[in-house]
Amino acid sequence: xxxxxxxxxxxxxxxxxxxxxxxxxxxxxxxxxxxxxxxxxxxxxxxxxxxxxxxxxxxxxxxxxxxxxxxxxxxxxxxxxxxxxxxxxxxxxxxxxxxxxxxxxxxxxxxxxxxxxxxxxxxxxxxxxxxxxxxxxxxxxxxxxxxxxxxxxxxxxxxxxxxxxxxxxxxxxxxxxxxxxxxxxxxxxxxxxxxxxxxxxxxxxxxxxxxxxxxxxxxxxxxxxxxxxxxxxxxxxxxxxxxxxxxxxxxxxxxxxxxxxxxxxxxxxxx
Length: 271
What we know:
CATH superfamily of one domain: MetI-like
Oligomer: single chain
CATH class of one domain: Mainly Alpha
Number of helices: 11
Shape: globular
Distance between the termini: 34 Å
């Protein structure tokens, strides 16, 4: 009987992983490349009037002009600042609400029905009331973003805590964990995957809420830049703003995904 085996080298594994990543990147770029090709084709043959569909070159030039003038980074910096403060406020409130309802069925019985009713009203549905109460200053943008963030963070926090096996709490009691030890050694590690999902959904909601509120009630930011360009019928600027919004949202999600992978690396080694 002949026994054969294959020796796996670290270098070959790294090369295989790199090949899979490049292959995945190639597949991910197929659709954008096809859209860009059709867009260029439509602009070249004027299937749509250039007044309504500027060519990709014009949009690229608009991006370059925004970059060279500094206008792009000024508006983007303002928008990112709003997202940062609103996201932070929404995460803190969502974690507090989620932990309270996840750890206490009594608190959940009191709060969850009202929370669900509030969460079912879209962010834009609250905008007229918020404008009447606090005007259109920066606090409005932060409040709207925080509202968009708090819903997924709260729901996923509750879900993460409720998914912890009751036996784990029994073990914590046997080992006489203090409340702080129970929180740091049991609740947070066990609920972290669900929490990470809530944080990523909250960030996506925050960015979309920011654009919505800047379109309607702002004089600065990338959303305002887009609506202001539309009013001037500068559709190349409108599409350039759309590109900036999409790329920035993607980059923010990738950053949070990278942090999530680092925080949850222990789960890979454990299983």
